[in-house]
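chain below, 456 aa
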Amino acid sequence: MTRVRQTRILAGTALAAIIVAVGNQAQAETGGGDTPSSYGCNSLEEIAELQMIEGKDGMFFRILADMRLQHAFTDQTVDNLAAMAKALEKNGTKLIYVPLPTKSQVLPELVPARASLYGFDAGIATEIYDDVVRRLNDKGVAAVDIATPMRQNNRNSFGEHSFFQADFHWTAHGADIAAKAIGDRVKALPAYEGVEPVLFDMKEVPPPEEFSSMRELLQKHCVNHVPTVTAHTYEATRVEDESAGSGSMDIFGSGDAATIALIGTSYSDKPISNFAGYLEHWTGIPLDNYSISGGNQFGSILSYITSREFQEQRPRFLIWENPIYNNLGQYGDAPWAEIVAASLGECSPAVPSTASGENAVEAALSTAKLSTDDVILADIGSDSSRKATFTLTGADGTVRTRSIERGDRLRSTGRYFFSLGGFPAGSIDKVEVTFDAPVDDTTTLSICKTKTGEQS
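prediction:
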């Protein structure tokens, strides 16, 4: 019995070696695809920096981001977005959340059969996206399905797809289709009632030079030139009318005029796609774009939501675009405490504090009625700071130190919302906040709420 089992193992091992050898040879000849590479590409699936796979019509997919079927969109993430939406709406801002689909969810017909080796299934990929949108809407978050219309109209009259072939970003065509779906949803919301639409025409302009790190990496592994990252490009131009007079009208709105704040990633930040312009065109509402390329899932929202600009003039609509593969639970509750507290904006008057150094202030909190849902807002008083370190001293002498830092790609707002979650009520006797810049008379500490309905 043992000999038979050992023989089978050895035979299986030999067969596996033969299969691997044949597979490696086939991959060298086809670039890892099911048919010979159209561009003489080789070993794309083994690139350490970014593993890729060649599909049909010159469409290249990222294996990790585009082929995956599991996205970390937990129930806690849904609840956090619902809390954010509720906090914003209390102060007159409507959140529209846009989960951005992957290439494979929009262009499944161009995914190579070989993708099944990585577990990809087009039907499951579609259902996973639909499930995220459905769960958000069930919790009261206005989430927009842009994947379905992008699939239904995934190529324009010039033959350009919704996504670039050799890059993972969407084209102007993809941005256009997505923006129309969002515009239709915005116009159906009660918050749109009373909006006087502004007309924006989309006019074709020469495409800007577009650098693509994905294409540059891809080209190193291909003999022939892979598709360039270019497409027909358009800009939004306001249509002047009689009410515009001499043309000096403020196109960004003022007073009670409806405005949109666009928060997003590089998808929203690229001029070649001009997602912001298409949103103005399809919503009829002037827009300010606060998107940040390379800011990851929270870069743009933290930069905008913690700013004085947001607190002083809130938009009617806040559109937040985020790729579905971004994990909104990656950093725990800390970013959400900041987002919700800043969205709500219910903060106490400044707590009495004194300078404890050139860059630091401290305040006694022993008599303050703090809860684990509260946050401490440390505002240096200007945009000069990117880091704040909170040192909390308990009544028993225990000292805890934590920091909040804004990376180089984020805006430096000088405002930090530090969550007291995890600190038992009454356990904090004193707080000292050390900034990376000098403090002055405008530096303040306040206590803010994260639960709607509470009073400061």
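The CA atoms of residues 263 and 320 lie 5 Å apart. The first strand starts at residue 52 and ends at 54.
thats it, cya
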